[in-house]
């Protein structure tokens, strides 16, 4: 009843090809954007913005990066944490070498360093597939982590081996470093994430994205139809690593504030892989669902009981959260193996015919 | 059906989120404790967390808090994970904490720049950034009673004492095995400078965090290099593994030094009798033979208000937790004295910590005579570089070995000042100190 496109006629090619062809979707997206831009930053407290919203957006971007590679191009990767690290260290080097250039430019540029590294480690994908490729990307993860520890040039010979984020301004407002408030950081992250998500959405709808999906569905057939696996696979690695690199740079500059190499360990790679799988492989909205589920839910579960006055020991909350999250992951994957995005789609279909399910 | 449950769920969620926040009791101050009772570092984290919360609970139970102000203790689980630590910091920040005790050098490094902006003092007791001892640059960070650099210099001084003077260090080989993280890397600049100055060979054996339970390759190298002494900066599961590996390669245990954080009872206990002679630095009493520990037993442990395993009560790391909480409590007391207020805030707490002056009489009042040394901080010196002593493992427990002695403060202090300046330059624009210095 509410979600029905009856009566919405498309009279031009533009109307037919737009990202959200259904009016209700456009309204929904506009509301979400409106809430994210005009309501959240002014209503939410510091904790919500700094510990939940900002990392959620950043990790959603990293998940989009992995999803491009794994969900759309079908190349399994366990190197996400490493590629995020490349972005973070590249951004740190860039901003310490050229402190006068805007930090946003550095963050967007640092993705290219990650893209270059990602392409190098993507080369084996031309010969090997599936789990075997996962093992080679695992090598990337370990090698990159080793670099972050062993190459002191990367962290400017800092005695503690960590990268510390210097304070940087945009339009006279501090956006990085300790004195940056959570609202400017949130807006910067939100702007970059929206920009890149729109770009990726359009990339996926076009020739390049279709090539990736062809490679994913059947690479031999794709090759016979004129898709060059070399370009398709490497471009998927490049775009994926670019997004991960930008996410990694933002993770350090807008969320952590300083990072040790262990921040980009295999744990992060797995975390992002779970976000992608749980959210739904091959779905952009799923990336946001997955990131929210894996990142935000544990924090809310941990912070929730004390906030509403239930006394619970810190480590008990920790154990209980792990158990709840584990159980939910299993439940969701049994109920809907295609992830939260598929659940959302089913929900939309139900809404479309409601209240006459046989219409 | 579907819609109904959706609506019901929505209403439930809305109700849950609007439930009123409980108001804190009037006369109380909020002290969050970052702890880790889970994860690979829990072996070291649990005794510390127990000691810290038990001492503060004891003050609440015995004296009704500090001058009638109850301490509202809350633990935040970090798992020794830097990200979770930052999350904990954001979480507690909203509740006006008096002081932050990160209990991880990694987390301390993250919160140092934030502390000055948010005006929350950070008490990193004998860990964290050594250069933070320079109070003129780091007004909000405290690392009493001694920094890592003091610790490293004390170990070198003790080795020199046994060899017969600093000049006898020439040509000696000293190995340094460390957790390859911010924590283990912290004293390397000092050790390297000392190696140059005193002419000993320094060999580094980094142990990556995820391989800390498998150190056979590092210790094979130690066996090949045959260093005269080994110094360890280990934590969590790294310590017992290192002790066992050292025994396996028959390294002379009395030439194996650990920093104070490598001195857990379970750490040396992993080697049992064979670990006899293994020594670590220490700055508080071992064992339970002190009035303060007896009070904790009476008011907290026997009353069932502690999580401590009775067999591990008052072990070395537990006592360190007690010592840490004592500094927090004394900081609060000093701040109350200085301001005349009962319920102090974080700014007062900063002044309180800065003007800490714990003399023998005060130690006696607290039931800590012989448990801790006197401690005095000042505006420019946030560590105090206090005396330490060596404890030796006798196969069953730690025993005091030798007298209290000073670290090589005269050499270390200028190096710390240089390091603080370097930190300031690397993190520019670093805010200049504007906090007033109250006279003692």
Automatic annotation (TrEMBL), chain A:
GO terms for molecular function: branched-chain amino acid transmembrane transporter activity. One of its GO terms (cellular component) is plasma membrane. It is a multi-pass membrane protein. InterPro entries: ABC_transp_permease (IPR001851), LivM-like (IPR043428). Keywords: Cell membrane, Membrane, Transmembrane, Transmembrane helix. It comes from the Bacteria. The chain crosses the membrane at residues 27-44, 50-69, 76-95, 101-123, 130-151, 186-204, 234-256, 268-301, 313-335. It is found in: Cell membrane. This is Branched-chain amino acid ABC transporter permease.
From TrEMBL, chain B:
InterPro entries: BCAA_transport, Leu-bd, Peripla_BP_I. Belongs to the leucine-binding protein family. It comes from Aquibium carbonis. Residues 29-395 form the Leucine-binding protein domain. It holds the Pfam family Peripla_BP_6. GO terms for biological process: amino acid transport. Keywords: Amino-acid transport, Signal, Transport. It comes from the Bacteria. This is ABC transporter permease. CDD domains: PBP1_ABC_ligand_binding-like (cd06334). Residues 1-25 form the signal peptide. PANTHER family: BLR7848 PROTEIN (PTHR30483:SF38), LEUCINE-SPECIFIC-BINDING PROTEIN (PTHR30483).
């Amino acid at each position: 009843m509410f979600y029905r496109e009856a009566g919405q006629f498309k009279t031009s090619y533009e109307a037919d090809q737009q990202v959200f062809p259904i009016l209700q979707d456009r309204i929904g997206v506009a509301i979400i954007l409106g809430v994210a831009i005009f309501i959240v930053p002014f209503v939410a407290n510091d904790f919500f913005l700094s510990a939940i919203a900002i990392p959620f957006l950043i990790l959603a971007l990293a998940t989009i990066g992995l999803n491009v590679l794994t969900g759309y191009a079908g190349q399994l990767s366990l190197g996400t944490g490493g590629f995020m690290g490349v972005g973070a260290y590249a951004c740190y080097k860039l901003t310490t070498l050229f402190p006068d250039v805007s930090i946003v430019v550095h963050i967007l540029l640092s993705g290219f360093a990650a893209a270059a590294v990602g392409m190098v480690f993507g080369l084996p994908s031309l010969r090997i597939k599936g789990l075997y490729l996962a093992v080679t990307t695992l090598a990337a993860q370990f090698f990159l982590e080793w670099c972050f520890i062993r190459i002191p040039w990367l962290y400017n010979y800092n005695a503690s081996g960590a990268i510390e984020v210097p304070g940087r301004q945009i339009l006279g407002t501090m956006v990085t470093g300790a004195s940056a408030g959570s609202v400017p950081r949130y807006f910067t992250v939100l702007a970059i994430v929206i920009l890149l998500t729109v770009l990726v959405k359009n990339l996926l709808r076009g020739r390049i994205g279709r090539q990736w999906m062809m490679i994913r569905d059947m690479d031999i057939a794709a090759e016979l139809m004129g898709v060059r696996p070399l370009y398709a696979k490497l471009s998927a690695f490049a775009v994926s690593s670019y997004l991960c690199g930008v996410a990694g740079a933002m993770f350090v500059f807008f969320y952590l504030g300083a990072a040790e190499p262990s921040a980009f360990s295999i744990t992060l790679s797995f975390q992002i892989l779970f976000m992608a799988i749980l959210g739904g492989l091959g779905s952009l909205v799923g990336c946001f669902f997955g990131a929210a589920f894996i990142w935000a839910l544990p924090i809310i579960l941990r912070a929730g009981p004390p906030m509403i006055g239930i006394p619970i020991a810190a480590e008990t909350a920790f154990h209980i959260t792990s158990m709840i999250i584990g159980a939910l992951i299993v439940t969701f994957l049994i109920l809907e193996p295609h992830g939260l995005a598929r659940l959302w789609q089913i929900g939309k279909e139900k809404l479309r015919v409601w209240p006459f399910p046989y219409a | 059906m579907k819609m109904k449950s959706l609506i019901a769920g929505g209403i439930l969620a809305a109700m849950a989120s609007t439930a009123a926040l409980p108001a804190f009791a009037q006369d109380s101050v909020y002290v969050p404790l970052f702890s880790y009772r889970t994860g690979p570092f829990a072996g070291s984290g649990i005794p510390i967390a127990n000691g810290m919360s038990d001492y503060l609970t004891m003050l609440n139970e015995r004296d009704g808090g500090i001058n009638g102000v109850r301490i509202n203790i809350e633990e935040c689980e970090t798992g020794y994970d830097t990200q979770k630590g930052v999350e904990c910091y954001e979480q507690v920040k909203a509740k006006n904490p008096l002081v932050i005790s990160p209990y991880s050098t990694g987390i301390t490094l993250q919160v140092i720049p934030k502390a000055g902006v948010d005006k929350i003092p950070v008490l990193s007791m004998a860990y964290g950034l050594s250069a933070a001892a320079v109070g003129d640059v780091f007004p909000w960070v405290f690392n009493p009673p001694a920094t890592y650099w003091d610790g490293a210099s004390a170990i070198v001084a003790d080795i020199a004492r046994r060899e017969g003077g600093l000049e006898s260090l020439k040509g000696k080989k000293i190995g340094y095995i460390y957790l390859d993280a911010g924590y283990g890397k912290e004293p390397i600049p000092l050790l390297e400078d000392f190696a140059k100055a005193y002419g000993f060979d320094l060999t580094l054996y980094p142990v990556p965090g995820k391989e800390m339970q498998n150190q056979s390759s590092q210790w094979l190298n130690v066996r090949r290099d045959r260093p005269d002494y080994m110094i360890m900066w280990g934590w969590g599961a790294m310590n017992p593994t290192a002790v066992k590996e050292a025994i396996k390669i028959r390294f002379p245990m009395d030439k194996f030094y650990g920093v104070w954080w490598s001195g857990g009872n379970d750490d040396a206990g992993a080697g049992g009798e064979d670990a006899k002679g293994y020594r670590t630095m220490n700055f508080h009493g071992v064992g339970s033979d002190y009035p303060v520990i007896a009070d904790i037993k009476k008011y907290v442990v026997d009353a069932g208000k502690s999580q401590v395993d009775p067999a591990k009560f008052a072990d070395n790391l537990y006592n360190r937790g007690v010592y840490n909480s004592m500094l927090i409590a004394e900081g609060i007391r000093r701040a109350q004295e200085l301001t005349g207020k009962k319920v102090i805030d974080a700014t007062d707490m900063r002044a309180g910590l800065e003007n800490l002056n714990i003399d023998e009489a005060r130690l006696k009042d607290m039931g800590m005579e012989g448990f801790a040394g006197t401690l005095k901080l000042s505006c420019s010196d946030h560590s105090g570089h206090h005396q330490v002593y060596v404890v030796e493992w006798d196969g069953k427990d730690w025993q005091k070995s030798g007298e209290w002695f000073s670290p090589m403060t005269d050499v270390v202090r200028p190096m710390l000042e240089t390091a603080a300046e370097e930190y300031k330059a690397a993190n520019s624009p670093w805010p200049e100190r504007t906090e007033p210095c109250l006279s003692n």
